[in-house]
Amino acid sequence: MNTSIDFNSNFQNPVFRCYANTVLDYFNRLGGAGRYNSFEEWHPALLTLGCGLVATGEYEELTPIWSRLPLQIIYGCDKLRERVTAELTKTLHDIEDKVGCVLAAEPILLDEIKYRYGDVHEDPLKQPQHIAFLTAWSEAVGEMEALGLMENKNGLKN
């Protein structure tokens, strides 16, 4: 098993690499043709974390995550959710702490969104992208904890 990976490094974390090389690539290709009307810059990061949790084999019920994303990214986008889940399932296969690897990607993704998009957005009444991402993730994890699907933010189930 591969235990020498530094999950906290964006260059070594396989979930972050999938986000950067597969998910962002999809939405940036052809000048952003994959983007849908309600697209927000934080949606790809939350999708990636949800797919990562599914890929661990530890979580089947992720409605708290999927409900915070538009239907277009969940069921459309050329089956991006299925492709990302399959890629992460393969990538995480030899990693002993799969859940830890996925959860370690969250602060890396948060930093990336903050770096890329900062506080700049078209609608001044909307939250900055990194705050919207952090809010959606925190609420989803809190709901999963309340439902007994996830115990504390370390990803341990009851």
Q: Report the portion of residues in β strands.
A: under 5%
Distance between the termini: 25 Å
Number of domains: 1
What's the β-strand tally?
0
Main traits of this protein?
mainly alpha; 7 helices; 56% helix; globular
Description:
With 158 residues, the chain is mainly alpha-helical. The chain has one domain (14-146). It contains seven helices and no strands. Helix 1 packs across helix 2 (43-55) and helix 2 (43-55) packs across helix 5 (80-92). The longest helix has 20 residues, at 98-117. It starts with 13 loop residues before the first helix and ends in a 12-residue tail after the last helix.
Quick synopsis:
This protein is mostly helical. The chain has helices spanning about 15-30, 45-55, 65, 70-75, 80-90, 100-115, 130-145. It has 7 helices and no strands.
